[in-house]
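Deviation from plan, reported transparently: norvaline complex.
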Amino acid sequence: MGSLAGRDLISIADLSAAEITEVLDVASALKAGADPGRPLAGRNLAMIFQRPSNRTRVSFEVAVRHLGGHPIPLFNSEIQIGERESTADISRILDRYVDGIVARLSHHRDLVTMARSARGPVVNAMTDREHPCQVLADCLTIRELLGHLAGARVCYVGDGNNVCTSWIYAATLLGIDLRVVGPEGYEPHPVVLERADVLAGGHSPVRHSHEAAESLEDAEIIYTDVWTSMGQEAEQQQRRDDFARLQVNDGLLAQAPPTAKVMHCLPAHRGEEITDSVLDGPQSVVFDQAENRLWAQEALLSLIFSGELQNGRTAGRGSVIPS
Ligand code: CP
Ligand code: NVA
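Because the crystal trials were delayed, the predicted structure below was used instead.
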């Protein structure tokens, strides 16, 4: 039985480098046509979406079905987290019916409460602090492109937000040369950088700067995300002004090698953080990246549910994925 059996995934830093690699290896095998078996046969997963989603909702739902399980999507209009019922009570109740919970919640603290209140596994489908499943798919994409992750030169241009935070932890764990470039006031949170240093034993490979040129000159990957995340709509005009000089456009791309690939977690605010010419251009890999959400999450779920679940604990049946 694998080490991920029965586990929660709240932060990508909950995983070791070896466990991330295991997820990516299984994802690659599934993508290449390996039979996942039916590790979710007879199992139901609640999928809570307090915020909108296209990729995450559909890729998780398809992954659960591929693995023989039954997804139950729940939207906030129905369960009204913290209004109709407390987060802990929602979690305790769902836990009596289902074998696991996948949740996109506005506030990370609610996801932590949910995980503490449920015996079965809880998987982060994005909060205001982290987006671990996105970054698993991103790592899969980069490994496909470059053949390796350690030492990969990734320039993240944008906000020090949830996606950036998961990226900082993943880069630290995997030895990726991550350069974060953003305007003053939008840096990664100092607590995140401190945690990355702790993860790396004092020397996280992640660097942060306000200017793009030096970070771009030998970049293999240019990554961006929206300037205004879900829930920050009131700040949109201020953010447009503050981030304008860091738009990923043809001029910015010209500062990087022509072989550099462009990634974006999507949805894109076309014309804000990225132009159509770049997003639809020859260096963009955003649709391959989006597809990899499916394979990465299918792998993750197959590893988490690789044993018989009994009140959130697993009793081994072994992974069904061939090594
Ligand atoms: N990248 C991502 O999580 O997309 P959705 O918001 O559409 O799920
Ligand atoms: N940072 C974005 C990511 C969307 C997938 C947000 O939180 O809205």
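The radius of gyration is 19 Å. We consider this an acceptable substitute for the interim report.
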